[in-house]
């Protein structure tokens, strides 16, 4: 929201669509938040049970840590279904909808960043308008207009001045700036030779055609399965990135259960900080692998899928082993 509001403040994003853009950002944020939600839920809930000595009572009646893990994995299964739907379908849909909205606002006069007494940049022109009046149909009438080509140079550029004008779409959907009763100055040479033309009506295109909006071909808005089968490295990495939260749900839940089993004297939040560090390291490792694949220093396969495997064998399994496992293993070796 802060980023969108800052962009709206400088006029790069229309204020009227900030709410829509924020809504379209939710699926991408949920990719990170859904695994974190279950991870923290297990830590805080089981930490509360253990700190209140309720886990001692539960174990005395035969409720083992394996039963806790089973219930947690059932929750992880349902969470993974929601995560999979979000990552595979909602993320590309929201990205495509956001880009389509941005393109439509670029061609809609109602959303153009033109205000009275301010400079605006449209269609390769820098425009200063002294007065702007919005009509009931969304079109805008403008008065006392100054139009300069952007970027402006000493030679080969022009400046147009008009008493009034308006923004209209033609039959092909192209947005035009139409000016009435003005003058146009063109600088031809370095010594200051110029032409001046007086016109009754002047037209300049300021945006593309609504009817020619093509399907966005960027990575973020393409279908996940299409990316997997595309054969492009960037596409496959993006698909792996979308699938990685599904595995993260199970791995992080598997790690959260032993971390939440605290001693009643330690308090429910005794292991919260180490758990957050593990979660952060998981995603930092994931981002590092993504960057290494894009740079060519890590193979495309196993790619990002190596991260859950590493955390399973080097973090998850060791944490879930009995506390005296290594002692028992050592004593067996000595007995042999």
Tell me what you see in this structure.
This protein has 336 residues and is an alpha+beta fold. 52% of the residues lie in helices and 20% in strands. It has a six-stranded antiparallel sheet with strand order 1-2-3-4-5-6, with no helix packed on it. Strand 4 and strand 5 (174-187) form a beta hairpin. It folds into two domains: 2-105 and 221-335, no CATH class; 112-209, no CATH class. The chain has helices spanning 2-9, 18-24, 26-51, 54-60, 65-107, 224-228, 233-260, 272-295, 306-320, 325-335, and strands spanning 118-122, 125-134, 140-149, 158-169, 174-187, 194-209. Helix 5 (65-107) runs antiparallel to helix 7. Mean pLDDT is 80; it is low at 208-217. Part of the ABC transporter complex LptBFG involved in the translocation of lipopolysaccharide (LPS) from the inner membrane to the outer membrane.
**Mean of residue pLDDT values:** 80
Task: Please give the radius of gyration in angstroms.
Answer: 30 Å
Contiguous low-pLDDT stretches (5 residues minimum) are: 208-217
How far apart are the first and last residues' alpha carbons, in Å?
64 Å
Content-based structural category: alpha+beta
Large-scale geometry: elongated
**Count of alpha and pi helical runs:** 10
The main sheet orders its strands as: 1-2-3-4-5-6
- Biggest sheet overview: 6 strands, antiparallel
Strand proportion, as a percent range, falls in: 15-25%
Order of helices and strands: HHHHHEEEEEEHHHHH
Q: What is the domain total for the residues?
A: 2
In percent, how helical is the residue content? Answer: 40-55%
Counted beta strands: 6
Membrane topology: Multi-pass membrane protein
Subunit structure: Component of the lipopolysaccharide transport and assembly complex. The LptBFG transporter is composed of two ATP-binding proteins (LptB) and two transmembrane proteins (LptF and LptG).
Function: Part of the ABC transporter complex LptBFG involved in the translocation of lipopolysaccharide (LPS) from the inner membrane to the outer membrane.
Protein name: Lipopolysaccharide export system permease protein LptF
